[in-house]
TrEMBL record:
It comes from the Archaea. It comes from Thermococcus litoralis. This is ImmA/IrrE family metallo-endopeptidase. Residues 55-148 form the IrrE N-terminal-like domain. It holds the Pfam family Peptidase_M78. Gene3D superfamilies: 1.10.10.2910.
Length: 227
């Protein structure tokens, strides 16, 4: 599916709008952890279901499906039952992103092709623009800028954290975390803890902080997500 280019700010605005309208519905200010399951069912009026999508479609790496005709968000059972909570909630939020940003386009494409109006989300499609947009929406929904900045400030202070070393130069046992690339997961976990981001993975938080300029990696080393 082809989608028009949308600036990051536009996607973030849409995610913010969902949180603020959901807040009006429940009558309180919404803060992390963002209750994405209730946003899907209670706010958007969609049904959240679980199926073995890899068996159903005979393909590996299917995370979720949004079926517009049936108003259903279907999450792969393996992800929902045995995957980390962060990945499960991110996939749910990703489907919300498709609903908000792409539902009209999905319907249009289905009308043209005669197929069911649905979108299948595969890991292998992560670089396609509609998938990137839904991922970015999910990050903005689960990790609202204001709350990330507040949590970061509590942990690291006012200034961005500059990672100048790939590995720690400190010897011995330290209570504080040395801000180097190989310690990215400690830093992300501390910020998650400080901001109540209980349904967000460390990877997602680190990516969000890099994107918001709160962490600056000046080394040649890439952050390894395998930790
Ligand atoms: Zn998707």
């Amino acid at each position: 599916m082809r989608v028009p280019w949308v600036p990051r700010e536009g996607i973030e605005r849409e995610a913010h709008k969902v949180i603020s309208e959901y807040g009006k519905m429940v009558g309180r200010n919404v803060a992390p952890p963002i209750p994405v399951e209730h946003i899907i069912e209670g706010f958007l009026g969609l049904r959240l279901c679980f199926e073995d999508l890899e068996e159903k479609f005979g393909q590996k790496g299917i995370l979720g499906v949004l079926i517009l005709d049936e108003g259903r968000v279907v999450i792969n059972t393996q992800l929902a039952e045995s995957g980390p909570e962060g990945r499960y909630c991110f996939t749910c939020s990703h489907e919300v992103g498709h609903w908000i940003l792409h539902r009209h386009l999905i319907k249009k494409a289905a009308k043209r092709s005669g197929d069911q109006s649905a979108i299948i989300c595969r890991l292998s499609d992560a670089r396609k623009s509609h998938e990137w947009q839904a991922d970015y929406f999910a990050a903005c929904l689960l990790m609202p800028r204001k709350h990330v900045f507040e949590a970061f400030k509590t942990v690291c202070g006012e200034r961005p954290l500059v990672l100048e070393n790939e590995n720690s130069k400190l010897g011995g046992t330290w209570v504080a975390v040395d801000p180097c690339v190989s310690n990215w997961h400690y830093i992300a976990q501390l910020v998650c803890n400080a901001g109540g981001f209980d349904n967000v993975s460390k990877e997602a938080m680190a990516i969000r902080m890099l994107e918001l300029g709160l962490i600056v990696n000046t080394t040649e080393a890439k952050i390894g997500w395998g930790v």
